[in-house]
Automatic annotation (TrEMBL):
Pfam family, one: SWIM
Keyword terms, alphabetized: Metal-binding, Nucleus, Zinc, Zinc-finger
Species whose genome carries this gene: Heracleum sosnowskyi
Protein family per UniProt: Belongs to the FHY3/FAR1 family.
GO terms under biological process: regulation of DNA-templated transcription
Domain SWIM-type, chain residue ranges per copy: 213-249
Molecular function terms from GO: zinc ion binding
Physiological role: Putative transcription activator involved in regulating light control of development.
Name the record gives this protein: Protein FAR1-RELATED SEQUENCE
Origin: domain of life: Eukaryota
Places the protein is found: Nucleus
GO cellular component terms given for this protein: nucleus
Amino acid sequence: MKAVIPKIFPDFMHRLFMWHILQKFPSKLGVVFCAESLFMEKLNKFFWNSSLVPEEFEQGWHSVLEEYNLSDHSWLKEMFELRHFWIPPYFMDKSMGGLLRTTSRSESSNFYFNHFVQKGDTLSEFYMCYESAIAKQRNSYYELRNGDSKFPKMVTEMEIEKDAASHYTRSIYYKVRKEIKVVCYHMSLDNLVTADNVKKCMIRDKHVKDKVFQVELSLSSNDISCSCHLFTRVGYPCRHIFYCLSLSSIEHIPQQLLSKRWMKNAVETYSTIDLVVESNGSSDEDKRKSTSKEVWFEFQGCVDEVSSDVNALGFVLAGLKCLRAKAREMVKNPQMTKKYVIENMFGVKPSAVITIHPPLQSNNKGSRKRIVGPAEKSADGRDRVWRMCKICKKKSYHDSHNCP
């Protein structure tokens, strides 16, 4: 994987699973030593601290190893050489999509599907179980979506918290709310400098041992960045950014800080056209789908580039209206008949000769007389004929089998 990933995914970085490496410490250093000494406790302060910089981690690593006389340990030396692949301070400025140190995405998927399938299932059984699992996920999605429609309870009186509740999903809002709450009680301003229309704030965070973080805010475009890189890693603003926005009297989260994957309308922002169909250009229908995919991505990219500027958005909107008018004159859309919809959806024309018809309806309720059984017909002698009894030689309703 280490050799192939840079070739296939050149923009991505291969990383190692920190939890697996930490599980090897007892086997490499001794179970009793790791359990009874404070060695692991002291190292964990540097492993799981996302606010450290590489220099602070290296200094802490060497100090702990020197304290326990492990500086010459071969396996620890090897792990230190690979620190760029598993220690968080070395990729703080990389987008992690919410996955920082674990393989939780694949493990959670395995755990979820294990509730539906078994290893002895056939292919058809697996498919039916898979459909059930996906149906449950969709049901959970709609339940969460209905929960997002309700406005949550605010913990502060800041307008920016209300703005966050209107944009983010409920689970992400709770995380953002923690960051906003810290702004009110545990943040202080050390220094503030404004030059070239850029405001630089040195903010002291009491939650991180009074460490100072630098936030830069462009007053013209509202572009903002923080030295903790929380927004870069997980996609929502940190407490230091919220504090700087509060100092600047900005009551709404800038569009640049609203990551689409955490928004309530994340699904609605993407097109419903058939973008998943692979095309090899062998037919007109494949070319149409491939071109429609490119058109949509160009449109989406254009909107993303100008989403932070109102004037640029107005320019794009005017251009789209003009382009739409010209396209309407160029192409006359067919009427949205049932035949056209079927042809556009499945890529084939409906047959003119219909050989399969719906079955004839059978009216089985109240349309026919009720069937009367023999026992009901013979009740009280009704609907019976007289017979000649061979025993008593008389005509009556009985015969030789029940002659009195």
